[in-house]
Amino acid sequence: MSIRPFRDIKRKKTKKIKVGNIDVGGGAPISVQSMTNTLTTDIKGTVNQINELAEVGADIVRVSCPDQESSLALKKIISQVKIPIVADIHFHYKRAIEAATSGASCLRINPGNIGSKDRIKEVLKAAKDNNCSIRIGINAGSLEKSLLEKYHEPCPEALVESAINNIKILEDENFFNFKISVKSSDVFLTTKAYRSLSSVCDYPLHLGITEAGSLTTGSVKSSVGIGMLLMEGIGDTLRVSLSANPIEEVKIGYEILKSLNIRHKGVNIISCPSCARQAFPVIDTVNILEKRLSHIKEPITLSIIGCVVNGPGEASQTQIGLTGGGKDNHMMYLSGIPHHKVASDKIIEEVISLVEKKSQEIKRN
Predict the structure, then answer these.
(1) What pairs with residue 168 in β-bridges?
(2) Dihedral pair phi/psi, residue 308, rounded to 5°
(3) Number of domains in the chain
(4) Which of 58, 195, 309, 324 could join 53 in a cystine, given CB atoms 3.0 to 4.6 angstroms apart?
């Protein structure tokens, strides 16, 4: 049993590309990305962070390559990780070539900023030779000067025109293995740009609200912007950009997908905000359970409700549920059906035990 969606989201069918072993577009599951914030030349530190991101569910990780030492370090980094790596390149075409030959699965570039046509051809040849896809990354903060002069400021029309111009550069060179992003820190600008771009092309789209802010602010802005687009069926992969530990980006990315019933991973806890009716400390209980159940990868729904007003109803829609009653009279539900009672001081261990049993059951099946 799991929560039923109010309606199914009909995703736009886009072209499918590969980023390493991950399908992007063409109806493939929406992948969750993040980016390292270590110095790329710190190979051990970067590998550790990539592996930490993979552990919490990142499908793809981007790594910055601002200089030759960094792009060459990719080879050692990639040999020690299991998920696809995107090389983040700005301006320096040689860094893109070095990253492709070092084993990057994708290059994040702006073809229009790479330089002459011959340089672009060299980058695309390196990408083709090394089975490397490309992300055309359009950002409101780094638009071409000509577009800023034309539109006077960053706007959806400028982002989309930049994207189309860059798409043409790749298409003219017979290169079609790419995805696109048109990001801004403004939610309205970003969503309008993605809607417009989605209406005129069928390449896979990478979603994000760039430079969204701190953990709280950035999570809210990203959830609103990315969530609106996903509900409209737009988007094939995403990154939540936060001024926080990159691990939080992955967690929030999955929470956005789970909230829309698009993709499930780990325990989805439905909990009340708590009030005077609560029969046990709901907030503390949920905080503890989130930490102690973070190792669960199988999709499991769990409701933690402090009283009998909404508890039974929520429990009827989750695989495991807890509804507060008297001191030693809290009811545990399994598959929506009342099953047994649990005392207040046994709640944490009982819920963890039931979730772990359900996890094992899912693995066996």
Answers:
(1) none
(2) -90, 5
(3) 2
(4) 58
Model-wide pTM > 0.70: yes
Q: Which residues pair with 61 in a beta bridge?
A: 34, 85
Tokens representing residue 234 in the block: 């737009």
Helices (H), the chain: 43-55, 68-78, 93-101, 111-114, 117-129, 145-151, 156-172, 187-200, 215-231, 246-259, 282-292, 311-315, 347-364
Inter-axis angle of helices 93-101 and 117-129, to 10 degrees?
10
- The answer to whether residues 214 and 88 belong to one domain is yes
- How many angstroms separate the most distant Cα atoms in the chain? 75
* 254 neighbors 287 (Cβ within 8 angstroms): no
Is 11 among the domain residues?
A: no
Query: Cα separation of 46 and 217, whole Å?
Result: 26
CATH number for the domain that contains residue 29: 3.20.20.20
Q: Which residues of 157-184 are buried (b: 16+ CB within 10 A; e: fewer)?
A: ebbbbbbbbbbebbeebebebbbbbbbb
Q: Which of 263, 242, 245 shows the shortest CA–CA distance to 254?
A: 263
- Distance (Å, rounded) from C-alpha 16 to C-alpha 205? 11
Do 188 and 50 have their domain in common?
yes
Q: Do both 238 and 271 map to the same domain?
A: no
Whether the CB-CB separation of 2 and 14 falls below 8 Å is answered with no
Could you identify the residue written with the tokens 């982002």? 159
Pick from 78, 83, 181, 178: nearest CA to 124 = 178
For residue 161, the enclosing domain spans 17-259
* Mean pLDDT within 133-162: 92
358 domain-assigned = yes
Looking at the fold, whether 42 and 167 belong to one and the same domain comes out as yes
State the pLDDT confidence band at 1, using cuts at 50, 70 and 90. Answer: very low
Q: How does pLDDT run across 234-257, given as a tens digit for each residue?
A: 999 999 999 999 999 999 999 999
